[in-house]
Each structure stands twice: as structure tokens, then as C-alpha cells.
Amino acid sequence: MSTRIEGRVLRRGDYRYESRRREACWHAGVPDRYPEVIVLANNEDDVVAAVRLAREEGLQIAVRSGGHSWSGSHLRDGTVLIDLSNLRHVTVDREAMTGTAQPGIKGSELNAMVAEQNLFFPTGHCTGVSIGGYLLQGGFGWAGRDYGPACMSVTGIDVVTASGERVHADETQNADLFWAARGAGPGFFAVVTRFYVKLYPRMRVTMNSGYFWPASAAQDVYRFVHEIGRQTPTEINLLCCRDPMTDGAPLISLNATAFTDTEEEAREQLSIYESCPARPHVITTRLNEVTDTETLSRYGTDPHYDETKHYLADSMWTHASFDDLWPNFEAMLKTWPPAPSHLVVFNWGGYEGQPERPSMAYSVEDELYYGLYAAWTDPADSRTYTNWVTNHMRAWEPYASGIQLADENLINRPYRFVTDENLQRLDVLRAGWDPDGLFVSWLGRPEPRTAAVDTKDSPVAGPSE
Ligand SMILES: Cc1cc2nc3c(=O)[nH]c(=O)nc-3n(C[C@H](O)[C@H](O)[C@H](O)COP(=O)(O)OP(=O)(O)OC[C@H]3O[C@@H](n4cnc5c(N)ncnc54)[C@H](O)[C@@H]3O)c2cc1C
Which residues form the FAD-binding PCMH-type domain (predicted)? Predict the structure, then answer.
């Protein structure tokens, strides 16, 4: 068995090991977990060799594509960390509207490449996120309500399995592995070295409107978003963050984006925000701007993600009324952490244009998505902000139908991220594909569902197996 590796191999204690370990995590809150070996793979053969190396040395395997896991789920003790950031090859077939992409490419880079051919792929809302982890955990992206989670646009994968074999998986070959790869996220039990994807015609018009309120308008704004979120075809990004515009107090910004064929249609779609009951109290607006997703990411989303800070994220899917969520939100407003800590709410499920879900591991969705992110500078504050996020999300559990692995806090608050049936099936598949438990799994694991919300009512609960 050859374990010759063309890329760099860094062992604990080696010069550059620690800096590389730290660089493997996108933010400053690098966990105290130490891989035994870091393999910077140059190609697929290196991945095979790294899997063999782990077996030979009796180590487990963790995988990194872009290192944007909030919890640093790829940094694990007793592992070979296979770092795929150099696997960045992309192909685009304009005629067939398909492509292939390796996991180290960033979503924003992929979208710039397909845009050159007037095509589109539903990549994430931030510039820096690589597609490897993003697609495996679902993929909550631009125009995602039109295309579903981005993993729905994956048609096949090339993987290196726990036995060191290179296999292809899609709907017809190794279909169970393909099923798992669309939603297992950090619990996937093989290394994906290439994704095969569907591409879409690029929308002619992307138009955005922004409204900014003081926190005193919160109830009216959030209630309005809960009421219209499901019906409107526009994509809502409702964000609460301390801001200079409100002298450092929490500011509520509603950004709505229309993806349409004509400017007239986009304006018509965005006109609904003029009927928000809080409209008279708005501090400022930015209405009907023709733009593109790259600009929206760069100036709208990215400023909230500062790699020099420590971060903790958590999340929930919900279809609760805002009145049920308000008491916890009101308490949060009184203790809001410093910028760029924020709460973001997106409308997602239950509207007419939504595509049908295929059978896949990804199986928990709902009308609205809440993501909560604390950011801090001093490591001494870690406990305070970890508790702040975890306890406030725990307070909302009676109204949550699940979380998204994109923003998981499983180590502190294990919560349902796929249906119970799908979790069981993932366990069975893992036992088959990785019988020796070579691949590490999720950092925490939810108990079978007991929460108070009856998700049978959820309009968008996905299929289970
Ligand atoms: C600033 C920021 C913005 C974000 N915005 C969005 C967003 O808009 N939408 C959204 O859906 N998510 C978003 N996320 C979450 C992000 O998609 C996930 O954290 C995702 O895992 C990041 O991908 P990555 O390749 O960097 O993952 P990594 O951190 O490299 O890996 C995370 C885990 O995924 C698994 N994994 C990664 N690559 C592979 C592979 N090739 N083969 C097998 N397993 C693999 C491993 O188990 C690993 O532990 C954001 C995160 C951050 C930090």
C-alpha cells in the first residue's frame, strides 16, 4: 500500500503545524483540538494516500474544504485532517447547463465562473465559503427558495471511501451514498473530491430594497415578516445588529431581493414592503436598486463576518407566530452583544414556487430560518457569549422544528437537524460504508424528537426514508 503524498504533510510539533491548524479555522476562536497529522492534498491520489495513512497509523479522519464551519468541526483530536483547499478545479458546460467543481473552490468564485457563461448556481450569501462543506450540509443560498437547498442541484459526487477506494455516486450508482451526501454535512463518512452540478440561466434582474429601523420598531417589523414571508416571492434578509446609525444600539435592517425577468416585475414584488406597519418609523431606506448577488454579498453580508473575531452560531427553523418569539427577543435586545454579533431571519419555505424535494438526508426545513451569531474579541468572554447564544436559542426550542447544520452549535445544544428516520438511516449507511468508524462525525447528536412543535404541520418538512 502506497502512502506517498505529493502535498504537504505536517505532524504535531512540526514547524508550520500550529499556524496551519489555526488557518484551518476561518475565525479567531480556534478550538483546542489537535489533529495528529495535517495533509494538504494536491490531488485525488493524495486523498487516497491520506486515508491509507490514517488506517496505518490507527487515526481517525476529519475533512476540511474551506474551514468555514463555525464550530471548527474539522479540527479533531486523534485524526488525520485531510485539507482539500487546493482541490479547486471547475468545468462548465454551457450547452448542457451542467458543471463539475472540486470542494476547495469558494461559492463566490464558482458563481463568478458560471456568470461568465450567463449561468447561475445557488451559492451561499457570503463571499468566502467553500462549496465542500456548504453542499454537504444542504446549502442555503441566493435564490434558494427558487432552487431549494443547493444540494438539490448536485447530481453526482466523486468520493474516496473509508476503504481508500475512489467511487462515483449519483441517483443510479451508489445511490445510498449520494442520498447521504445531500444533507449529512459534518457527519458524512467519505471524502468528496468532486461535485457534479446543475446550473441555471442567470436571472435578468436582481433588485434590492433596504429599510432600517430602531429596535423600537422590532415587533411591527418581525410580525410583518412572519406574516408575508411565506407569500412573497422576494427573498427577505432581516438583520438585527448594533450599528452606528442608531448610536451603537441594535438596528433592524430589512433587505429584500427580487430575482425576475424585468425591472417592472421586480418593483412590483418589492412594493409589498411599503405596506409594513413600521414604514412611518423608518430611519432610512434604499429602494429598488438594481444589483447582483456578488455586490449584495460584499456590501451587505460580508461586513458581519470578521475573521479576527471569535464566533459562535446557532439556528432554528420555525413557523411560529412572532408573538410567541417576542418575549425571548425582547430579553435579547436588552443584552445584545457588540457588533458584528447579529440575528438574521430569512423567509424560506411554504410558498408556491418551491421545487419538490427529492429523497435526501436533508429533511428539516420550515417557513422561516433564524440564525444567531455572537462575535467577540477577548477569549475571556467566550463563556459569556457562548451562554448568551445557547440559552437564547434554547428558550426558543418550543417553537423550533429543527436547526440547520450550516449554523450548528451541536457541541453546546444538540438539536434535530434531519428527521429521526433519516438520522437512523445515516447511522446504518455509516456502518456499511465506514465499518471501522474511520471518519469523525457530528460534534453532538440530538435525542429523538420531543419538542412541542408538531412538524407534521410544517408545510416544508422534507421526505424521510
Ligand atoms: C461567514 C460564513 C458565512 C456562511 N454563509 C452560509 C450561507 O450563506 N449558507 C449556508 O448554507 N451556509 C453558510 N455558512 C455555513 C457553511 O456553509 C458551513 O460551515 C460549511 O460547512 C462551510 O463549508 P467549508 O467547505 O468551509 O466547510 P469546512 O469547515 O471545511 O468543513 C465542515 C465539515 O464539512 C465536512 N466536509 C467539508 N468538506 C468535505 C468534503 N469534501 N468531503 C467530506 N466532508 C467534508 C467535514 O465533516 C467538515 O468537518 C457560512 C459560514 C460562515 C463562517
Answer: 31-202
